[in-house]
Amino acid sequence: MEKQQGYRVAVVGATGAVGEKMLETLEKKDFPIESLTLLSSSRSAGKSITFKGEELIVKEATPESFEGIQIALFSAGGSVSKSLAHEAVKRGAVVIDNTSAFRMDKDVPLVVPEVNEADIANHQGIIANPNCSTIQMVAALKPIQDAFGMTRVIVSTYQAVSGAGTIASEELRQQSQAFLSGEELNPEILPVKGDEKHYPIAFNALPQIDTFQDNGYTFEEMKMINETKKILHSDALHVAATCVRLPFFTSHAESVYIEVENEDLQVSDVQQVLSQAEGIVLEDDPSNQQYPTPLSAAGRSEVFVGRVRKDPDNPKGFHLWVVSDNLLKGAAWNSVQIAESLIKNKLL
Amino acid sequence: MEKQQGYRVAVVGATGAVGEKMLETLEKKDFPIESLTLLSSSRSAGKSITFKGEELIVKEATPESFEGIQIALFSAGGSVSKSLAHEAVKRGAVVIDNTSAFRMDKDVPLVVPEVNEADIANHQGIIANPNCSTIQMVAALKPIQDAFGMTRVIVSTYQAVSGAGTIASEELRQQSQAFLSGEELNPEILPVKGDEKHYPIAFNALPQIDTFQDNGYTFEEMKMINETKKILHSDALHVAATCVRLPFFTSHAESVYIEVENEDLQVSDVQQVLSQAEGIVLEDDPSNQQYPTPLSAAGRSEVFVGRVRKDPDNPKGFHLWVVSDNLLKGAAWNSVQIAESLIKNKLL
């Protein structure tokens, strides 16, 4: 058998929470790699990381770092993407960007492969990976939209701290220990590292993810609203979101209300479509207390759906509970899927 | 000044999570008491509890325990209420019942004093205290319903473990410690003590509160749906609920979507009405990151509302974030308020 061609890959933000999962995923899925370049800010440069048994040194990302790179996976924050993604493209790389820097740009496809893989073909050097909370929701909703038509989405999220980075996970761990020991909590990171006020996350719930916009919504909520419409190719779809940070480490959960076009639709119809959808696992058997939870979804790359039920009053309304590992399908795994699609469709 | 008349009060379930808060509330609000009888199951009988500096012994609740009692506050579970509430009424007591045993009975007023105090006048011996998650929601929604008309409610809850009793709080504490120490979790209580399966609550989220009904909704969700319509006197109101148990000890939070009758209504109109409503504290200033959280509401008897905003697509839609201490306004404080109203309106 002919040896599969390998690619020259760079991971920007290799030492972060998503970067770590990106490397785990490339290794686990045996992604075809000819050379792997690990990049980061100057702060983390010099660290060593083991990949497939080989020790690699993380280098500071500069425009020149991308010479000869074919695929650049960015997850080092929006400002790094804004300053370096175009430099990578200029040098011939295709950038898969995990930040919000370019997601709403008209020229940048925003892609969840199970949902809108065809959009990748329109790329002009940059492909955006959607926000973690958006990815799992649209993955669950697309099969329903295709089968039955969908007019409306209202989501309330239950989001893990790892979405705010390794430092947020560390803060939850430290605060939880302090709380249980009766010690004082000293919040410094959450809800938003760069924002003015910080609140305890241990044994608490914070209805703020990312900064507030002028309209009273947080940026996280606006991401879910705008990205969902873009990925599902439907400006007419009504979408509203409330995003809440909670004291668990991994996986986002979502209570999703949707309205479909057909009032005769039954729970079993929705379950049937979800059970056959790519990348979706239906875990929905109330009589056996079966439903997904953040802990049960952690470490897995699928999107789990349970608690499918019809609205008690609106025959077009349905409720779902959607859970997925925010660092895998919500970030690393979706990015690697995009890279695999680029290769498969000869779009590099 | 004439000394205020005191009443002969019994607390049934005095050693439980709500019972404890009931006694704290009676003491703190200086409720007029001539005699206080503490009752429980045989299991907890014999324990001693200090009330206003005096040591009281908890006795086993029997029909005869209620001889001479004027006000009986029940919070020892539905089966205790079902077997003893009528015995108490037969002996002349008015029962304020904190369980779900009688809430939907036509003859039993279901009361949140700020919302439907007048219903107390129709009591026939038993007045029901609504479910904790219902109380805080209807307290926030009633002023909006009165001022603007309301047609629809969709709620996703974020509920504290103390709603499942002291044993559930203890389970969260033990599991959290075990998780942080890298030890195995052995769930035995949550989501529902008497149900077949148990899942870890530490650093997790469980989309099941109370047992599942045949329609796929949990009993907690059906309580929110049915009780809300009864308390707000509106069978036509559309109500849907998703109830989720989360790893914090105190206060329930709720992401509430409502539809009002008037599409010209603005966020400031809703805020204005809430800021003047009895028992409500508006904490809503996104520009200063001001919003309520479970920790900030714990130990306080009001209902806190923040994150008021208009739906991005539906001009009749609004979103709110409602938080309150589930053991105080959600249980003990609301029960004591009902008792105060009975006295004030000479309904004993």
Automatic annotation (TrEMBL), chains A, B:
Principal EC category: oxidoreductase
Residue ranges of domain Semialdehyde dehydrogenase NAD-binding in the record: 8-123
Residues that bind substrate: 159, 245
EC number: 1.2.1.11
Alphabetic keyword roster: Amino-acid biosynthesis, Diaminopimelate biosynthesis, Lysine biosynthesis, Methionine biosynthesis, NADP, Oxidoreductase, Threonine biosynthesis
Pathway listed: Amino-acid biosynthesis; L-lysine biosynthesis via DAP pathway; (S)-tetrahydrodipicolinate from L-aspartate: step 2/4; Amino-acid biosynthesis; L-threonine biosynthesis; L-threonine from L-aspartate: step 2/5; Amino-acid biosynthesis; L-methionine biosynthesis via de novo pathway; L-homoserine from L-aspartate: step 2/3
Residues annotated for phosphate binding in this entry: 103
NCBIfam families attached to this UniProt entry: asd_B, PRK14874.1
Family assignment from sequence similarity: Belongs to the aspartate-semialdehyde dehydrogenase family.
Subunit field text: Homodimer.
Protein name: Aspartate-semialdehyde dehydrogenase
Organism this protein belongs to: Sediminibacillus albus
